[in-house]
Every structure is written in C-alpha cells, then in structure tokens.
Amino acid sequence: MRAMSFNDEKPIHTFCVAPMMDWTDRHYRYLARLLSRHAYLYTEMVTTGAILHGDKDRFLRFNPEETPVALQLGGSDAADLAQCARLGEQWGYDEINLNVGCPSDRVSSGRFGACLMAEPETVAQAVAAMKAAVDLPVTVKCRIGIDAHDSYAYLRDFVGRVVQAGMDTLIVHARKAWLSGLSPKENRKVPPLDYPRVHRLATEFPDLSVIINGGFTDLESAMAQLEYVDGVMLGRAAYQQPGLLARVDRLFYGSTEADTDIRACVLHYCDYVESQLSHGVRLPTLIKPLLGLFAGQPGARQWRRHLSEQGHQPGAGTEVIHHALTHTR
C-alpha cells in the first residue's frame, strides 16, 4: 500500500470528496463531516474574480467543524490567485487547490479549468505565486490530458513543470477532457478512464503525493487504488450516496470505532438546520444534501419523497426531517 497512515496533526488525502459545483457547498460539507471525521473535503470551485470583486463572506465562509477543508480556486492570473490564496489562508482553510480540470465552456472562456493544461508555464507560475504567498499546501487538480495534448509524455512533462514550481499534491481525474465536441456532462462519462496512466505517474514521481479521481462508485473499488497511489477522491457517489462516508474512517484511516450511526448524524444535522434557518437559509437548501443519505437501505424512497414534498411547504422546519426519519430503520 502506497498510502500513509492518518496523522491527526497533519491530515492527508487518503480519502477525499471531490469539489463539485452546486453540490459540495458548506451545508453538504457539514453533513459530510458528521459522517466522517477524517475525509478530506473541498469547496466548490470559486473564481478569483468572484472573490476579489464579489461578496467575500458569501464565497469564503465555512463552518469551523468542516476542517480539514480545502479552498478550490479557478483562475489563471498568478497575482490574483496569490491574493485569493492569502485570503483563503486568512479565512482558515487548510489547503489551496487550483482547478485545472473543469471542462465547461464557461470555464474555458474565462481561461481557467482544463484549458490550462495547454499552458503548463501559466500553471507553474500560478502555483509558484501561491506558494510564495501562503504557508498552506498548494495543490492542483487536473485531467490526464486535453484534446490533442493527450499523450503520457505530455502529462508527465506538465506535471514535472508544476512540481518544479512547488506543487504539494496532485489530484488527477483519470479521463482526458474534450474541450470541443463534448458537453461537461459528457466529459464526465464519455472519455474512457485510464487508471494505469495515473499509476505510472505516481511511480515516476515517487516524492509527489498523487490522488486518483474518476468513476468510483463504491468504497471497495476506491480502496483497491491505494496499492498504486496515495489517495482516492470520490465525486458524485459521495454526494448522491453520502451514507458511504459513514464507513470511511474505519476503512481508510484505521479507526477502531464503529461505523458512524447515520440516524444519529441526522439528529445532529437537525440542530445545524435550526441554526441556519434562524439566519435566513431556506429549508430546501439544507435538505438537499440529505436526499440520498439512506440510498440502498429500507425506506430510502419514502425518506427522499417526504423530504422533497414537505420541505417546500410554507413554514416547514426540522419536523419534516424528523418525520422522514420514521420511514427508515
């Protein structure tokens, strides 16, 4: 096994939940942390422009209970990224991550995301600027290639240049991205997975922490990757079936405690919901991360239906969640 053991003083990325736009918001992350003490969490991607010219509290606020949590930035200007990294450090994040993997048209037109894999020097300069600006780890999330830049040699050279700039950890989505011809949704499924390419990268960069992402739907297949890489990242499976996280501490971090009691987590989350409702957050927003919590278990359909139907009713509160819980075991 390539991965190290968990150290409470220095969290490592043995198991991560991927940054996902419109999904991994602070409410989901709060629930995720109730389910797992050690899973490494990431914010949704936040652009440098949104932080520098928008509402910083809106884009940077998170719950202290979420830690360890990384701030994922989207951008290409080294000075802007350095400034946002400093703000992330001031707000208490544990890591700054640069998005070099998102294939959406909107991202590419803004010159950040996967299109930056065609500009290794730009990425290297950005990483170097962020490293000089903060004392936090600076990490990069990329694809195995884009469009015509899809050879292993290109990926190796790209990674080598960014390592020279000071990158601490590399997260690789094991698919290439087609920036022209495929939609963002298609880019999550159509390009074939190539795990061996990421394994080879980990072998050729033995001093670099390499995390693999892409296509994992269960914890067992994810665990098998630890023979080749330092950690694994789950995306949609961790959101659509958050109950998976209840087993993460035991399976990935060697916890001797029993798996997390999901029903108990729901009750704790209700306390959080009460506090958020008092600050004006809408109940449907707070219920959204709960919908798939009991996926695959008895009563899951009734749980989801009750939350979906009753959570939008005027004046609804945590009693909706408590009643939905009666449908589960």
Automatic annotation (TrEMBL):
Alphabetic keyword roster: Flavoprotein, FMN, NADP, Nucleotide-binding, Oxidoreductase, RNA-binding, tRNA processing, tRNA-binding
Cofactor: FMN
GO molecular function annotations of the record: flavin adenine dinucleotide binding; FMN binding; tRNA binding; tRNA-dihydrouridine20 synthase activity; tRNA-dihydrouridine20a synthase activity
Domain DUS-like FMN-binding: 17-316
Binding locations of FMN: 19-21, 72, 141, 173, 213-215, 235-236
Site (Interacts with tRNA): 99, 185, 188, 301, 304
Family: Belongs to the dus family.
HAMAP family named in the record: DusA_subfam
Name used for this protein in its record: tRNA-dihydrouridine(20/20a) synthase
Organism listed in the record: Ectothiorhodosinus mongolicus
